Amino acid sequence: MPVEGVTTEIHTVARKHPVAVPVKSANTLLSGIGTTIFTVMSALAVEHDAINLGQGFPDTEGPADVVQAAADALKDGRNQYPPMPGLPELRQAVAAANYRFYGLQVDWAREVVVTSGATEAITACLMAVVNPGDEVVLIEPLYDTYVPVVRLLGAVPRFVRLQPPDWSLPRAALADAFGPATKAILLNSPMNPCGKVFTEEELGFIAELVLRHDAYAICDEVYEHLTFDGARHVPLMTLPGMRERTMRIGSAGKTFSLTGWKIGYVTAPAAIATNVAKAHQNLTFTTAPNLQRAVAVGLAKDDAYFASLSGALQAKRDRLAAGLASLGLTILPTKGSYFISADFRPLGFNGDDVAFCRHITERAKVTAIPVSAFYDAPNAPSHYARFAFCKLDQVLDEAVSRLRKHFGAGPAA
Ligand code: PMP
Ligand code: GLN
Question: Which domain holds residue 389?
């Protein structure tokens, strides 16, 4: 059936004679957003042969036994659609991990949904509870999919901004962001890009607001096992009253240093998990079964694995922080995640964070991410760059040495 303004005939003509034809505008929200900063900066890093401390991915393989389990699973007949909410063995493993690490009792069959990465999980959780016109409380700086998805669902973001340099939570502003239209808060802890791990006291304050406004909490906890200096990740879901209204999201990409695998998992009360599964059903339907099988093996690894993961990353954080500090950058505290944020003004660079990250990519051959990319509302701070430290020691050292060579040679720009 011909669609107004877009017929086969017009397409045929347009291919032969590329002239402007009347085509209705595409989705304006998507047309209005750019390509994600991670893709942009990774492409720039490749173009300039720069060390990529921008996009957060480790430059080593994940655990060999987990990778082997995925390879084995390809050969044992696991190549057709798995069950829609996820392989039972992975959902059981997620439930067991919830209990092992946080004492959460979870019914694997009704309260766990496997998704294609935490990215899908975030969208599925928002879809599960949000109606058009609802408000969703978001905390800046924030991960780049949150705002577009909230808006695509017809919901309204209500922003609260953490205050650097210690990324403190402005409690009065947070309380003001909640109101009668609030449907949910989307909370990321440990937090990308600033490495904040919300304290139990801050979580208590948030939980009180969620309860008072009868809202849901969507908790992006992809860095749950990447915490430093003894900082303990506490899922909001474990706080009194939160179990019935929280969706908790994990990612195998971060927990097993296998970011390309895109296996996420949501833990939620059964009534909400049903809707998360329906969202998943309409987004991707299922997720690669061999990788699900392997992640189940990974989640059963002993405590030493999880301790060594955070221990090794903490040493890398310290290594890169010391290197950047020795150049004069001011390092902001990082208690979790893959990232350090640093104030580059002491280097005397004349420009904002976007210019700085482009400059060091092109001239020093080291790539970072401008922290202003993690803001939607205007007047974002523009003097911080985010550096990923989930890299080999020699790569971190080489990055610092390149920056030293560049900035040591005289004023930048
Ligand atoms: N949330 C945050 C805060 C992240 O940093 C990432 C990293 N990619 C994701 C979600 C997405 O995780 P995944 O790769 O599992 O989709
Ligand atoms: N989470 C990663 C980061 O913050 C990248 C994810 C992505 O490229 N979409 O760097």
Answer: 28-57+304-407
* Number of domains the chain is built from: 2
**Residue 410 clears pLDDT 70, i.e. is over it:** no
At residue 8, the pLDDT reads: 39
pLDDT score at 226: 98
Token pair 């109606």 is at which residue? 131
Q: How far is CA 30 from the centre of its chain?
A: 19
In a domain, 413, yes or no: no
Enumerate residues 6+ apart whose C-beta is below 8 A from 58.
257, 259, 338, 390, 391
9 confidence band (pLDDT: 50, 70, 90) = very low
Which residues have CB under 6 Å of ligand 1? 117-119, 143, 188, 192, 220, 222, 251, 253, 259, 262, 264
Residues in the chain: 413
Which of 220, 210, 215 has the alpha carbon at shortest distance from 188?
Answer: 220
Ligand 2 centre to CA of 409 (Å) is: 32
Q: Residue 196: how many CA atoms within 13 Å on its side-chain side?
A: 23
Residue 176 shares a structural domain with residue 71: yes
For 387, other C-beta atoms within 10 Å of its C-beta total 32
Instruction: Give the pairing type, strands 182-188 and 366-367.
Output: unpaired
358 within 8 A of 44, measured Cβ to Cβ: yes
Q: Which residues pair with 6 in a beta bridge?
A: 3
- Residue 56 Cα to ligand 2 midpoint, Å, equals 5
- Are 312 and 364 contained in the same domain? yes
Ligand 1 center–CA 13 separation, angstroms: 43
Please report the pLDDT score of residue 276 as a whole number.
98
Q: Model confidence over 290-304: pLDDT tens digits?
A: 999 999 999 999 999
The answer to whether residue 18 scores a pLDDT higher than 90 is no
Q: Output the pTM of the full model.
A: 0.93
